[in-house]
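Protocol step 4 of 6: structure prediction from sequence.
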Amino acid sequence: MTIDSAAGFRERPHTADWALDVWASDLLSLLKQAAIGMYALMGVQIQSEPRVTYRFELPIIDPESALVSFLAELLYLSGRDGLGFDTFDLSMKGAVLRAIVGGAAMISQAKEIKAVTYHNLAIRHTDRGFETTIVFDV
């Protein structure tokens, strides 16, 4: 994987589902980039106002479960409330991920993601930070 910047994402061709290569300098930045990438894959556009903020905490077993749980929670909130999120304030305290996410009502969504998967999921620590490929069930 060639990495052009300190953090980002790009779609990876996948036979049946969607996959996203994600990289960042640290784990929390990786989660943020994965969320931004997930909404980009879905083609989500949101209103500029009114803004909403959600706070939630998730237990963390390992980095991979943190990634899947975080993205799954965002998908759940988006589906339940018709919202897209574009700001992510993340912190960890012990084995708990604390998230404050901001967004607004969706104007449009081009594609649907049904689930975040653990398929071949491994977060690798490299000289440049953290990298992973995450597969979404569509």
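Step 5 (inspection) to follow. Helices lie at 27-42, 63-81.
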